[in-house]
Amino acid sequence: MLFFSFKCRYILFSIIYVQYSCNITVCLKYQEEYMLAKQNYTRTVYAGSGGVDAKDREFPHMALLGYGKNFSEAQFHCGGSLISDRYVLTAAHCRYSPGLGYVSYAVLGILFRNQKLKQENIYGIKNIIKYPLYKPPKKYHDIALLEMDRRVTFDIGVIPACLHVGDEDTNQAYATGWGYLGKAKDLATVLQKIPLWPVSNETCLSKFSPYKRHLPDGIDEASQMCYGDDGKPRDTCEGDSGGPLQIMSKKVYCTFTILGVTSFGITACGEIGFPGVYTRVSNYIPWIEGIVWPKEQDQFLSSNIYFQN
């Protein structure tokens, strides 16, 4: 048994003590792959909109969001990130789907879009909280919290992510989602992961100059960021909205840190040289903490995690 103790201000657990099983060999393999990707990303061949299939339990914080009154008839159009035992972080524009209504369900612990689900994978949405300054059609402050109808039981396939506060290297990140696979408009059946790199605000704004309706004041550096790949058609696509832009945490073992929330891009996703726009999570830490962890706001919470082989 290995023991790790840490303090995490952008806290991923709303309880003091958490115990779950973790395949350490698999986790270390993932970490090695991410390091190799940073050193030489040409080792991996990316297809479609630039993504490859994620591995089982590789992103245990991923949530798939469903719309509709009955789960048997629900349609799934957005993603999200589990950040506590009660809340999912997503985009504000994902709170509602035309013709289907407000988001009704969050599905956790899955890899395949259409896999057979257990009741424990399905959570109803009890409360939808969008950031107060989100005013569509403007794309600023595109962030929201979804409170689920019951507490989540953590295990190897369902683990919350940390939130970025600006103190880790963000040169390369990964976006994940079950959205469309590029121009073919085929929905991903398996969770996709896409390596992306930061794009300057000046370059990003030049690409989105026709979108004055959504960005009348340009890119807001404090609350937005752009990621993409100038050399390859890599991008998040329709259906990936609300999902995370993330890095492997160097502080919390076997855990991802969420940098951004997938907000929007051009209609023809995957165009070379066109980045995506993401809501910068670090700008909203006080707001998130005030809702998700009100008793621990502005404090450090110690958490002990036990990993068992």
Automatic annotation (TrEMBL):
Keywords: Disulfide bond, Glycoprotein, Hydrolase, Protease, Serine protease, Signal. GO terms for molecular function: serine-type endopeptidase activity. CDD domains: Tryp_SPc. This is Peptidase S1 domain-containing protein. SMART domains: Tryp_SPc. SUPFAM superfamilies: Trypsin-like serine proteases (SSF50494). PROSITE patterns: TRYPSIN_DOM, TRYPSIN_HIS, TRYPSIN_SER. Belongs to the peptidase S1 family. CLIP subfamily. InterPro entries: Peptidase_S1_PA (IPR009003), Peptidase_S1_PA_chymotrypsin (IPR043504), Peptidase_S1A (IPR001314), Trypsin_dom (IPR001254), TRYPSIN_HIS (IPR018114), TRYPSIN_SER (IPR033116). GO terms for biological process: proteolysis. The keyword Nucleus does not apply. Residues 45-293 form the Peptidase S1 domain.
